[in-house]
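anyone seen this seq b4? input:
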Amino acid sequence: MIGGRFGRTALAAAAWCISATCYPAVSQAQTPAPKTARDAPVAFDIASQPMAAALNAWAVQANAQVFVDPGPVAHLSAPAVKGSLPPRQALRALLYHSNLQVVQGTDGVLVIRPRPVVAAAPKAPAPAPVAEVAPAAPAPAAPLTARASEGPWLLRLDADFVSGNGGNSGGGTAAIGGEYFFTDHVAGAVSVTLPRTFSFGAQGSARLQSSIGTLKYYFAPEYRLRPYVGAGIDVMALYGATGRGMDHATVGPAVQAGLDVRLNPHWMLNTDVSWAQVRSDIHIDPVQFGLGVLYRF
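predicted toks r here
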């Protein structure tokens, strides 16, 4: 007998009886509640657990009594039952997937017992067992691409060193840039260097500032090491010159190659080399080397 007020005591008695291979003693039944009270919905919150514990939880929450032989429920589990339900409906939900049924005794106490076995008709062949078809396992989700998992945008901060054609020479500077990945492999990039002083030997010197726009192709965007090549346009401005005819801006083709090293889903290191063709009165054709830090989002 499992009751709302005596559930824990009855359940302990049931466990003692299982270990002793005996039947539980039925505790004195409480006076059954009026029919209208028994049928009133109750807010049940019973977790999935062993059947005996679930029946005890039902009795406590329904403030009702139920008698159960511990043998048939010893190895059964009950599903979770939650919601506002009439007590009997909630009890049937606990027993739905078992071979147990609930009946009401003459004294009004609910009794849990195995369903009766229906004898097969004479000479009728036993029904063939029906194999349970396991539900098809869902197809594994495709792994996210680099663009989806890391984001399409990339910001970069580089330390650059430029070397010119012939006797021309330039110093180091910093560059900032950004990229947008149209696909995992293809990205558009813009990089702008801070002005630096560029020497033209006996002809003098000038301040040089370079802006490069490129279309880049990444060979292995999903790996830790990500080599790439790029091609685009370089816009170079010279100003503050110490010699004549040096203050001007030029536009020419540019090519680039580099390697990104992934540290985590957002941070990377980079090294690259680029070349631009600058044709004017002074041939510069700078080769620029860079080492930078990248952030992708």
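The radius of gyration is 41 Å. Helices lie at 7-20, 35-39, 51-62, 70-73, 87-95, 146-150. kinda curious what u guys think
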